[in-house]
Every structure is written in structure tokens, then in C-alpha cells.
Amino acid sequence: MRARGLAIVAACAGVAAGWCAASFAGFAPLLWAALLLALLAVAPERRRILDPGWPLAGAVLLALGWLVAADHELALQHTLLFAAAALLFGMARIAPPSDRLLGLVAAGLALTALVAIGQACGGLERASALVVALPPGWQEAAAVRLASGRVFGTAALPGHFAILMVMTAPLLAERALRAGGRRRAGWAFLLALAVAAVALTRSLAAVGIAAVLLLPWLARRRRGRACLAAVALAAVAVLAAVVVAARGDLGRLEPLQLRWVNWRTTAWVFRHHPWLGVGLGGVGQAGLAAPTGAANITPYAHCTPLELLAEVGVAGIPLLAAGAWALARLFRLGWREHPALTLAVAAVVLHNLVDFSAYRPEVLLPWAVLAGTLAGRVWPAPRQHVPAFALTAVLAAGSIVSALSWRSEAAATSAAALPPAAAVEAALAAARWAPWTVTPVEMAAGFALVPGAPRAARERVGDELAARWWVQSRSARWAEARARLLLAEGRPGEAFVWAREARRRAPWRTELDQLEAACTRPR
Question: Which of 95, 139, 213, 464 could bridge across to 3 with cysteines, CB 3.0–4.6 Å?
Fold first, then answer.
């Protein structure tokens, strides 16, 4: 495959991720299939997508993290995501999209603002009526998100969609200033769409990052600085005022309080698991026993550097430091000749100081394309190519695992619409597609506890739960599910042991007192 074809594949993958990664479960296997076909079509001597030292160090660190992972299900999910992002970065680096293609990427991502505007015009209310069709464990979270009134566009969370829009803004603004006539009006319209979407998400963090990025961009311009600065600063000020006025939780400083809890919980996890960490995605499970576990409503730290430190421990500090140094060099070199692209890449990096959008494919994958494009324009290509056997193994493994995960998720989602007995079988079948997961089995446990579910189904679910103890070895929900199943089977003594274990793993869960009492109640 020629460089132009590779650049088109990378650009299309970035735009498709912004549109589909959060809403279409089948996106991941399609992405891996595209990566497999595109990279293996490149001549072996031209596969210089990454310096071999980086993937080798990352693989060793991930292998160590897998051995100690507190959540193997999330660890594998995030490993696949980071590997796909690294491959997209490498593709864009060896075949950087042209200015025209980069503009199409920015335009394609900016058009996702139409989804956010549609949600604000009644889409959220229509979606609220469909919450009952979701699996039981997802209904409450979906209802809370929709009730907030904050749009989330094509992303999973409002703040993540907001930073996706902020990431495109420098590229759109640069083209609006360079173009003339109708083309300028078109780019300005797309920029206005992105700004409107940020306002509708009510993300104060995204507005703050936009203000931070605006200052160096204005300082760099030489012509019409005063007028342009006044218009840009006024727009950001109005945007901030709109967001502040629409947020009822800012008066209580609730966002800051929640982040402080997240940071304290993550710091506690690092102190108790300092050397190898708790594996990718393990902060949520490891933090259950923290003093702040009751108030820690998310498994993520809302600060990616801090979370990575807790996930990889002291062993990963050299690689994290090298990555931070490489990013600093990329920004320094890119600012000279490609300021708008540099600001777009910097937006997501800054956002991850107060959020976790780097763990979401709809943000990370488009960012990887832009970062790879910037690297390809300011850095020389790697001196060595990735060995063919290693690249083929990674691509094949990623394609197979992502396809199995998608098949499992699709089967688990369909189980919610079935009667209890059939739902149990469907959820267990979903679990068999992905042996590294425990979520479908926990769903099956919920279905098996519904009145009318057969005893044999409860026994099968209990056996499957027991076999997957290693997936989330610190999970209080897993222990609670075992206790409830045993209690339903008339085995209160064993149920009491697991109820106590669930309480030990999450001491703040006072509602487990009722479960313990039920286990000791005379029958």
C-alpha cells in the first residue's frame, strides 16, 4: 500500500472512531480488521511505524501488570485500546495526512456536533424512554446521565465529547482564517457548531482548556491581533458564562470535590500497591477498600498521569517519564511550523490532567491520528521497522480478541429482553465467548435471582462465578452475587461467608448488613 492510501486509512479510522467508537459495539473488530489489512499491505521494509524499544518496553510492562491486575476484564480492554492507538499513531507517522486530508478529518469530527444538537432538541427525552431496554446494571447509570440534561454527542460522557470538539477547534479556526469567500464561511460554520456543542455539554474543564490554548495561539499571530484577540476572548468568556449558568452543581463545588476524592483514592491505591501497581483499569477495584471508597463513584482517577502511576507502579515510572519527555519534544518542535495541529494534540493531553478521556476510544483514537500526523511532520521516521512476526501477532491477536469481545457484548445486551430462564442462558452463552470477563456472569446472576428462575440455572451461574474468581479478585459485587445465589439455593451458612467477604472488600457498603442478616435468619 502506498503512503497516500495509508494516510487515507488512518484519517478515516480517526473520523469513524469519533462517530462510532462509543455507540457501535462492532467498531473495535472492524478497526482491527482495517489495521490488519492496511499494515500487512505495506512492504516489510517500510513498516517503520514505531521505534522497537517503545513497544517492547510497553509489552513487558503490560505483561507484569496482567499478573497483578485487580481487574483483568478492564486490563485487556484498555490494552487493546492502547495498542490500536499506538498502531494508528504509527500509521499516521509514516504516512502523515496532507493538509487537505487533515482538514477533512477536522470537518468530519466537527460534524458530530449535529448529534449533540439533536440531543438538546429532544433526543435525550426520547432516549429516556428506551432505558428500560438496557441490561439491569446499566439502567440506573443511563437514567442519571440522561436526567442531567447534558448532551454527550457521540461520546460516552459529556466532558469527553466536549474535549473532542475543543481538539478540532484549532484546526477549524486555522482554516477559517486562511480561506476566503464561501470556504471561510464553511469553516466558520463548523467552528460555530463545535463551540455550540461544547456549550451544550456544560463542560467547564473543556472551556478552561480552550482558554488556555487560546492564549499562545493569539500571541503567535502578528496581523489583526487586537481585533482577533477581542473576538476570541469574548467568545470564550460568553461560553464560560453559559456553562457556569447552566451548571447547578458549581455552587457546591461538586466537580472539584468529586475529583479530590478520585485523586485521594488513586493515591491510596498507589501507596498500597507501589511496585507493580494494579494493572490497567485496576484502580476502581483496588480502591474499593480505600477510606474514600464510598464516595469514589468512578473506577477512573480523573487524572491520567496519576492513574497510570497507580496502574504500573514504580516499575513503569521510567517509561512514563520517557513518554512525557517525548510529548514535550513533540510540542516544542511542532509549535514552530504547525501551531494549530500542536494545539489540537495538546488539548487532549491537558484534559487528561483533570479527566480520563485517554481511556475512551472516541477521543484517544482521533487524537492518535493527529499526534501521529504531527510526529510525522517534525520527526524522522524510526530507523528500524517492527519485525513482521511481532506485528502480525499483535494484529491477529487484536482482531480475534476484539471480535470475541464484541460477540460477547452483543449476546449480553440481547439477554435483557428475554424471560428470566432464557436470559440466564443467553448471559452465560455471552460469557463463554469472552472467558476473560465476569460482567456477563454477574448479569446472569441477576436474572437467576428473579422469581421463577429454575434452580438448575442458579447452580450453573454459581459454578461459573466460582470459576472466574480471578477476573476481579477484589470485587465486592462478585462476592455479593455468590452470597445471594447460595442464599437462594438454601445454603445460608456458605452465603454468610461470602456476604462477610463482600463487606470486607467494600467496608463502606452498609446495605450488605441486610444480606448478612438474611443469611443468619432462622428458616
Answer: 95
